[in-house]
Amino acid sequence: MQIDFHYYATYCAAFLAGYSHEECLAICYSAQFTDCCTRTLLSTIGGPAEAATTQLQLEMMDARTDILGLQDITRIWSSFHFLPRDLKADPGKGSRIYKAKYRLICGPNGDLLMKTVNLAKESLQAVGIAMHVLADTWAHQYFAGTPSQVINNTDYWFFELLPAEASGDSQTSGDSQENGDAKRTFTERRITFRHNPTGKDDLDKGIYTSTVYQLEENSVMSLGHGRAGHLPDYSFMRYKYLPAWGKYEEVIKDNPSDYYKAFCQMVYAMRYLRGDHETFETDRYDTEKVSPYETEIKEILEKRQLDACADWKAFGEKLSGCEIPDFDADRYCTEYKQASEDDKDGTFLGSYIDAALAQKTMVTNQIFQSDNLLAGYSVEYNESRFLGIRDFIHYVENKKKKGKA
After folding, report:
1. 148-175 b/e with 16+ CB inside 10 Å = b?
2. What local confidence, expressed as pLDDT, does residue 399 receive?
3. Other Cβ atoms closer than 10 A to 289
């Protein structure tokens, strides 16, 4: 997903869940900051590199693809952007490494989602991170947060499903029922992928930018949905393709439907975090709270545009009656940078960093506990000693400090 959903739509969901305007801003900032918190940014403010929640393209170019480098990449992308749906999934035949990668395929309503939401009780920053992760389970499903040509690759058999009214063609593709709307017809258009990082996607011609095809299984070009470009990030997009992990059987992705479910699930999850529900259950959506705005929300989701920020912002400001400032990644950086070492944890970004490390620790530990070493070794926190990977030393030290307070 992009800033339009992670920032503005998350603000809207938080407001419908009952948070105040200021609380909504803290939540949606944290949700979007998860796409900005790189090691490069953290180094400029004196933050711990282990708290990185994403990686810049330049950082990825320098990333190692040996076992330690791949584990580092997987810890970041599986924890925050491609949360695994089922760490015990059985793909049938395949090598041990293939099965390990298969079990990292992202999808909604898995056990790790429940743990992610419950972990978000600590702070508004943690709520924002959890909402980013939750939303991405819907947009990024069928891809994995670890480099894998077998799992994440696409080929020439990749089609966009265009509503007949958008394509001007009344021919039915046969996918209308499977896309959740039997009253609409869709036409197929083969998608053309190109590698032009500076060029914009061409919605009219069906030309989209993706990463360069590589034969190497562990190339960073095959991380997440890079081979499918930004298609999973566009709320209006419907497409189908033949993934190798699915035995080359057709997979249909209906983003408008999935994004609406993501929005309703965010409202439900945040109402739970506010105390409106005693427990959080997967596969539950607050459609009742959202129903008065269903038509307006679905119109935004269906609109064919590269950036829906203006529409979501207008909707959010109408809901709350307050101005939503544009996202500024540097908003809290000076506060953190100028704070003393003892005071950094009490800043906005200090709380964000703590929440990010907690999420990364939990996901890595769960992957390790499932006998999967793709994210590295990890252990449960133990007050007497620390046996986990270096990434979590800062997190453990913070827990010890708070335990003494």
Report:
1. bbbbbbbeeebbbbbbbeebebeeebeb
2. 64
3. 17
Contact 63, 69 (CB under 8 A): yes
Work out the percent of the chain whose per-residue pLDDT is above 70: 89
First to last CA, the chain: 39
Residue 242 is predicted with a pLDDT of 93
pLDDT at 178: 44
* Residue found by looking up tokens 């912002």 in the block: 313
Contact 151, 144 (CB under 8 A): yes
Fill in the DSSP letter of residue 174: S
CA separation for the pair 287, 172 (Å, rounded): 30
Report the C-alpha gap between 235 and 35 in whole angstroms: 17
CB-CB contact of 32 with 54 (8 Å): no
301-324 burial by CB neighbour count: b if 16+ within 10 A, else e? Answer: bbeeeeebbebbbebbbebbeeeb
| Domain definitions of the chain by residue range | 3-147+256-404, 151-253
Q: Are 4 and 308 in contact (CB under 8 A)?
A: yes
**Dihedral angle, C-alpha 75, 216, 104, 388, nearest 10 °:** -30
Q: Which helix (H) or strand (E) holds 189?
A: strand 186-190
Question: Long-range pairs for 200-204 at CB < 8 Å and ≥24 separation?
Answer: 200/306, 201/229, 201/230, 201/306, 203/304, 203/305, 203/306
State which H helix or E strand residue 239 sits in.
strand 238-241
164-183: per-residue pLDDT in tens?
765 544 334 444 444 445 56
Q: How many CB atoms lie within 10 A of CB 276?
A: 13
Token code pair at residue 88: 């015990």
How far apart are the C-alpha atoms of 251 and 396, rounded to whole Å?
A: 42
pLDDT digits (tens, 9 = 90+) for 64-95: 888 999 999 999 999 999 999 999 999 988 89
The residue ranges of the chain whose pLDDT is under 70 are 165-183, 379-405
Neighbours of 120 (CB within 10 A): 28
- pLDDT given at position 171: 39
Q: What is the pLDDT of residues 97-120, one digit of tens each?
A: 999 999 999 999 999 999 999 999
